[in-house]
Amino acid sequence: MGKVFSAHAVSVDGYITGREPGAGRGLGDGTMLFDWYFDGDTPSQVFDGFKLSAPSARVFDAFAGRVGAIVAGRNTYEDSDRFGGGSPHPAARLFVLSHRPAPELTERQTLVTTGIQDAIAAAREAAGGKDVGLMGGGVVTEALKAGLVDEVVLHQVPVLLGGGRPFFQALPEHVRLRLVEAVPAPGVTHLHYEVER
Ligand SMILES: NC(=O)c1ccc[n+]([C@@H]2O[C@H](COP(=O)([O-])OP(=O)(O)OC[C@H]3O[C@@H](n4cnc5c(N)ncnc54)[C@H](OP(=O)(O)O)[C@@H]3O)[C@@H](O)[C@H]2O)c1
């Protein structure tokens, strides 16, 4: 069975957006979190148009290549302009987790309103043995609470944003992590953790 992981670009003070993210505004005033996707000279083999530094391309493509399906929170879906009716990943089906109907979803997108377990189960099935990627701080936190996350990746960008949406929200108990790899790269440090069980 595939794994479940989240990989987010995050500031040193723990934000995955700047202030006032939203539809049409993307990451708000935190757009520099994504600069390293485009500041290099090594094209991604998975995402068209991404040009990363060589060390970032190795890390980024390794994770991107593992993904068979995505579970994104409703905020990520809305703030990303509903991914234009498609998916944030070129080869992975999108599952949107929400408490509310989303009549505008296309046939390439699936809404799940019955909780994180169901969303991850549906994504696992669609992933066909590949991994499930989680998008959004709320979704990652829900999945951690349910004990469903295998790995957490911080693409840590050297900035203190001072505000925005946090990667991790409140948890009822500690979650211990084991550092698998730390890769310094231009404009970002890639921190790959496994969740200890
Ligand atoms: N820096 C990065 O790499 C990166 C990556 C991904 C996303 N982002 C950004 O992060 C922001 C979103 O993060 P976020 O933490 O605010 O939100 P999120 O995790 O994307 O979405 C949270 C929403 O998902 C729904 N949800 C969560 N758990 C649920 C459950 N158990 N059952 C049903 N629905 C559930 C709820 O929606 P409703 O109650 O409204 O239905 C909740 O408000 C966006 O701006 C996005 O662009 C950044």
From TrEMBL:
<dbReference type="GO" id="GO:0008703">
    <property type="term" value="F:5-amino-6-(5-phosphoribosylamino)uracil reductase activity"/>
</dbReference>
<dbReference type="GO" id="GO:0009231">
    <property type="term" value="P:riboflavin biosynthetic process"/>
</dbReference>
<dbReference type="InterPro" id="IPR024072">
    <property type="entry name" value="DHFR-like_dom_sf"/>
</dbReference>
<dbReference type="Pfam" id="PF01872">
    <property type="entry name" value="RibD_C"/>
</dbReference>
<feature type="domain" description="Bacterial bifunctional deaminase-reductase C-terminal">
    <location>
        <begin position="3"/>
        <end position="182"/>
    </location>
</feature>
<dbReference type="InterPro" id="IPR050765">
    <property type="entry name" value="Riboflavin_Biosynth_HTPR"/>
</dbReference>
<protein>
    <recommendedName>
        <fullName>Bacterial bifunctional deaminase-reductase C-terminal domain-containing protein</fullName>
    </recommendedName>
</protein>
<dbReference type="InterPro" id="IPR002734">
    <property type="entry name" value="RibDG_C"/>
</dbReference>
